[in-house]
Specification:
Layout (H helix, E strand, L loop, with lengths): L1 E4 L5 H12 L3 E6 L7 H14 L3 E5 L5 H15 L4 E4 L14 H29 L2 E6 L13 H21 L4 E8 L18 H10 L3 H12 L7 H11 L9 E4 L6 H18 L12
Parallel strand pairs: 1-2, 1-4, 2-3, 4-5, 5-6, 6-7
């Protein structure tokens, strides 16, 4: 299959692109600023492809730009004649008291984590709809319905928005033969750049006021998350599970899969929510939207 993975310069995105390529797919790793700060990631992907004999390529793709998304998808379709799978992985984390983030910072996080998927969909879905076939994979977060420690509110809210968008899209593209799976990683504290590269509040005065009452909370959250995560937890298992799901036959893929070694309980809440969704769609005679049309 022909696959594009957004936010594939590092972390889950890079691991997924490599795992999918090892599985025999033609994979385009979406990377922004390929000629600048991420040029070394482009070189690393090319080296990996050569060493492992896989079809792993990079494509300039910045989810914050509709033009970038359009050009990237058009290039892939021009080179391959089709596009089969879109993996919505691009995301960014921010750490700090919610009040200390400006509205503009919040909007930026929503843009990267949620609105960016809309830009990519608007570029890719016309091709998938014309094919009457395809798969959207959304990389969500267990925080959407599981344990939510303080000081991660902007990220949690943005991921929840993306997850909600994924759920609605699933029903709306089903009659075009397009499948949907939501992959839900837990809080992996190693193997990704989420925590090391997380954003911080712009309002330092408000942040300082919270530090008086919540001194050291950020460090405590990071430390405790690391403690409850099994020592052998490897974020590569997320990429492996994503690859497994992509390889399943159309219509047999799970709507949602959780990969959470720390087990924050998100799977339980999601199970109830997804069941209610299924039952409600059947109640209003839209049960056919629970799986993709044959074509």
């Amino acid at each position: 299959m022909i696959i594009v993975v957004t936010g594939a310069s590092s972390g889950i995105g890079a691991l997924s692109a490599r795992a999918l390529a090892r599985a025999g797919h033609t994979v385009y790793a979406g990377v922004r600023d390929t000629g600048g700060r991420n040029a070394h990631q482009v070189e690393a992907a090319a080296a990996y492809a050569g060493e492992h004999g896989v079809d792993l390529r990079t494509v300039e793709l910045d989810v914050s730009s509709q033009e970038s998304a359009d050009v990237a998808i058009e290039r892939i379709v021009a080179e391959q004649g089709r596009l089969d799978v879109v993996v919505h992985n691009a995301g960014h984390m921010a750490l700090g008291p919610a009040e200390a983030f400006t509205p503009e910072q919040l909007a930026e996080l929503y843009d990267t984590n949620a609105i960016g998927t809309q830009r990519v969909n608007r570029a890719a879905l016309p091709h998938l709809r014309a094919q009457r076939d395809g798969l959207l994979v959304w990389v969500s977060s267990s925080s959407v319905r599981g344990g939510t420690p303080p000081y991660l509110a902007p990220y949690f809210a943005a991921k929840a928005a993306m997850d909600s968008l994924a759920v609605s899209y699933a029903a709306e593209v089903a009659r075009f033969g397009i499948d949907t799976t939501i992959v839900v990683p837990g809080a992996f504290t190693a193997g990704t750049n989420h925590f090391p590269h997380s954003g911080h509040p712009a309002d330092r005065a408000v942040e300082a006021a919270y530090e008086e009452r919540y001194a050291g909370l950020s460090d405590q959250v990071g430390r405790k998350l690391a403690e409850i995560t099994p020592p052998d937890a490897d974020v590569a298992v997320v990429a492996d599970e994503l690859t497994r799901v992509v390889g399943l036959p159309k219509g047999q893929r799970p709507f949602r899969v959780h990969v959470d070694p720390a087990d924050d309980g998100g799977w339980l809440v999601a199970e109830v929510g997804d069941r209610i969704r299924s039952e409600f769609l059947r109640r209003i005679d839209l049960g056919d939207l629970l799986s993709p049309a044959a074509g």
